[in-house]
Predict the 3D structure of the following.
Amino acid sequence: MSVCILAGAKAMSFAVSLFSLSWAHSVQKTEWQEDWEVTPAGLQLTAARVKGSGAGMEPGDGAVLKGGWWEWSPQNPPVGELRLAASGATGGGWTLCHDGGCVELGAEAGGDVVIAPCAEHEAFPQR
């Protein structure tokens, strides 16, 4: 499987089936991390972690505190795509990491960043 990313005028793809997203909450400035799997049904959120809690950052059902991080396994259905709106309020964007490295997305305020399985967006160039 591959994941495709459209960020502004830049398109990229990675031949991976697992990736993580991390960012700082725009108000609380607290770190948040999510693990995703690219599946035939779409993008499946498999785990989430938040460093603390606060307004709009409540840990999910069944969360366990480990080393200062609330960790849980969301039970959401797969989604066809993720749309990340860059607010410019966090001092950075999202960091997408996979087994080959990391890339920063949406650091500037502006348009959406779209992350999807490549099969749904075949017009994205292959790497």
Notes: The CA atoms of residues 49 and 71 lie 4 Å apart. The two ends are 13 Å apart (CA to CA).
